[in-house]
Amino acid sequence: MVEVAPAVVIKRPRTPKDVVVEQRLLDLLDARTPLTVVRGPRGFGKTTLIGAWLAAQPTEQDAVYLRLTRASNDTATFWSGLAGGLAAAGAIDPDPAGDAREEVVRHLGARSWPLTVVIDDFHHAGRREDAADIDDELVELVRQNENLYLVVATRTSRVLETTGSLSIDVTVISPRELRLSAASVAALAARTGVAIGEAQAARLADGFGGWPAAIRDVLVRSRGDGGRVNLALADQYIATMVRDLRHEAVRSFMLRTAVPEEFDAELAGEVAPSEKVLAILRNVRSAGLLREEVRDERRVYSYAPLVRQALVRVLTESRPQQLHEVHAALTGWHIRNGDPVRAILHAVQAGAWDTVEQLMEEHWARLITQEPWSLVAAAQLIPPEVAAAHPRLQVVREEVGPALPANDDGALPVPPWPTSDLRGLTAELRARRAEASDGNSLALLQWGVAAVMAGDLGTALYAFGRCRERGHSRGDVPGAVRPATAGLALTHALLGDVEIARGWLEDPALRVLPDDESRQGTELTVTAAGIARALVALDALDEDLDDAVDAIPERHRRDEIWSLIVFLRASRAGLAGEAAEVARWAANLRAARHYLPRAGLAETVIRVELVDLLMDGGMVAAARQAALDLPVSVVSLPTHARMSLADGDYARAIGHARTGLAHPRLSQRSALVCHLVVASAQYALGERLAAHRAFEQAIEVAVGSGQRRPLLTMRYATFVQLAGTDTATAALWPERFRPRAQEDDVASAARPAEPLSRREHQVLDALGRHAGAVGVAQELGLSVNTIKTHLRAVYRKLGVGSREEALVAAAARGGTAPGPQWAKG
């Protein structure tokens, strides 16, 4: 029954001293709209707010406070209790023999002076259809009598809140308004005698979702702990709230859905299966216990952080079997949605070790390169004795963790290129001899290969190195030492470390490879070593580079390894510079893209090589077209710099080159190209001192790494001028790659030439400061056509065909104009 004793009906709720009621909420009640609904879950301060508001009213005769109990679930009991409560408060004088509902409606409908009826715990009023009937009756009463004001406090959304607003004015004070702000939390802490700062107040407000009673409970309990806020005390409040929930279905729903960080309606049905799951979700959301966000046209829900933490702890301690069921359901959910990282994390929590190993094997390349921190975090949760029985788990725990940089602002970013499906390469690695079958070594080799595919060559060196050490300790030369050594040689060759890669190729493990008859299971190792040898020969411009490229074994699988072979043969064609060969290999490069994963590192390398090949072959217009949609990355920056240099856009060329030089993953080969571009651009701009400094840096890279091929990207005439009389530097350019035409140009530049007129001297001097005739004309105050006439004469006398060649030839003559202005250049 409704409590009709005077202590409940007449005595209004007491407001605790150490609470904070925001004035804006009191103002909403003071507005006295016909219907005011105060809705929120237990502990959201509904009764406290109403008590504070009633205490501030000037009189007590025009407001009646009633509080319902569960007995009011029965409709007849509700109406009789309401009639009795109103009568005890002196608001109506019902006929004891009459129908309670009719008496309440008759008296309240006929009331001629203002009356506010406050009904607390209104969620107890009726059940199902009866509850809707009660709401409709009360709304109709308020609609008919302008002297009647109704205030209800409820934990759930009711019909009088939703459809009632269609016929009368309704003010809803929802959980959003009832939540405590950070400022209110700080004020509440001050009242309870707990000293906290602004940051901690904000953390409490956000962590509890502004839940007033939960925050107050923690603060009050913390007073006995020396005034230090103990967030663990929140669990006690949440646990009590969960135990007091009326329906087991709601209790189970909240505990189970707290396990995932966020969920939608579909996932809620997976982890908390029930016929009424959608209704429960709606009620829990309307009660303010869930945060809601619309993302990609679907609604996503989550609990406040500290609330979720407490719910998960309650589930862990009281229902461990259900916790495992939820993690198992989440594992299957994330597997179906293509998220192996979260699937592994939940499989670990569910103790499904075989599932963890299977997921790691299927998605090893992606996990080990793109999600290493998550992988290590999951592996650390696995008992050591379990990890020891699963090779990949063991590798993650013992090898991957120590190799990772700190995951902070100073760490290298996650590699930008996704790895493709490595099943084909894995099958080749597995095809080794039986005595070499070691799961840990295989996982390390796969890690190294995946890191190469992702462009993380530093990590690849670590993985291959650890595999080689393990192979030596086990005496496993064919199964671990040999492929790991080939991986080290290839990785260093890709980094542009020519001499280091050459050293690994001379290692005893690779010095004698199996012959054709005994090569089964080692094709990948032989191919990797062959690619490394060819790349070293090309970069060093060795005499036998043609033999090294031709010796690479043919590969029938059109994968990333095969694309490196295409890259090498195209690079060799670029060295020769023959138009037919350049065109043929340009076509091969375009075709190779179709066999490779889009936006992967291998495809990017092929696209970059296409632009480089066309530039090396003198097909600048075609190269410019190929570079139009080439994304800017650490791999393509040197090529973009070369393209800008060829277009005469020296500022942009320097910008691209310097951006590349600042990247932590730039290879030595690319670094040398960038330094040479900077030197060439600054020399063309007449910045001779800066050009010499950049050139010196390029030579340091060339000498230190053994790189020679990138030198050919610089004009030979510019190289000769910057090298000057340094014979050691001049010797870095191999004799057989010295262009005959450029030799003649330099020689002719050194011979006496037809002298320039004084005006031509001035034009040539100004040309060093401007990119073309327009700038020169503006400086000298002449017309553009006049300047072009003088430039043609200058080019003819110097025997050159471009601005850059004219400046190089002028420098070779030791200056072309008298006076201090030319001397400055």
TrEMBL record:
GO molecular function ontology, one term from the record: DNA binding
The organism's place on the tree of life at top rank: Bacteria
Domain HTH luxR-type: 749-814
CDD domains: LuxR_C_like
Pfam family, one: WHD_MalT
GO BP: regulation of DNA-templated transcription
Listed InterPro entries: P-loop_NTPase, Sig_transdc_resp-reg_C-effctor, Tscrpt_reg_LuxR_C, WH-like_DNA-bd_sf, WHD_MalT
UniProt signal peptide: none
Protein name per its UniProtKB record: HTH luxR-type domain-containing protein
